[in-house]
Amino acid sequence: MADYPYTPVPGKMRAFFEKIQETGVPERATTRWLPTVGFTAANDRSILNVLKFIGFLSQSGEPTGRWRDHRDKGRAKRLLADAIRESYGELFQTYPDAYQRTDADLRNFFNTKTSAGGQVVTQTVTTFKSLIALADFSGALGGTDVETPQKQPPTSNETAKSLLPQININIQLNVPETTDEAVYDRFFAALKKHLLS
């Protein structure tokens, strides 16, 4: 089960990321280092766990390349988005637009990933939302712009189709783990028979 970090002080995340850009790169970002840059509360220590999760710090607290790259203000938001997409990979597999999802959607996802109570789930959601508020998810991964193809004017037939309501159904099934390929063949044949016919 994934262990998603949270901080009870998500409102301090913006100030922390600003400190990364304003101060020198420490040899190690530890609980002793935090007060030297103005983070003196005991709860501030939880921010370090979030930074480790998104790859800004090694497990022993050394700043990584992501920390150093974040000091480039022109690229920082895009690079942070990449780090979030990678670190919260399972969430982005479930919701490719996770950064636009409602609190309820995020709660539903994180609720299935922890045995902790509702308060922890809420703090996990607010931690994620405080991170995405600092990131730029427009464009492609790696901070490169995506060229938008020129749209042709719709034909009258396409216009009529666009007025029809669209219904999307997402079916998620758990397939038993096996090395027998015939089990999967029968499973997908049954899906095709019952869903596509």
Summarize the topology:
Elements (H helix, E strand, L loop, with lengths): L12 H10 L23 H8 L11 H5 L6 H12 L1 H6 L8 H9 L6 H15 L23 H8 L17 H16 L1
Walk me through this protein's architecture.
By secondary structure, the chain is an all-alpha fold. It has a domain at 10-143. Helix content is 45%, strand content 0%. It has 9 helices and no strands.
Q: Name the shape in a single word.
A: elongated
Reported for the largest beta sheet, the result is: none
The total count of helices amounts to 9
Strand content: under 5%
**N/C terminus separation:** 36 Å
Order of helices and strands: HHHHHHHHH
Mean pLDDT: 81
- Structural class given helices, strands, pairing? mainly alpha
Gyration radius over CA:
22 Å
Q: How much helix is in the residues?
A: 40-55%
Strands, count: 0
Which spans have pLDDT < 50 for at least 5 consecutive residues? 140-151
Task: Throw out a few tags for this protein.
197 residues, mainly alpha, elongated
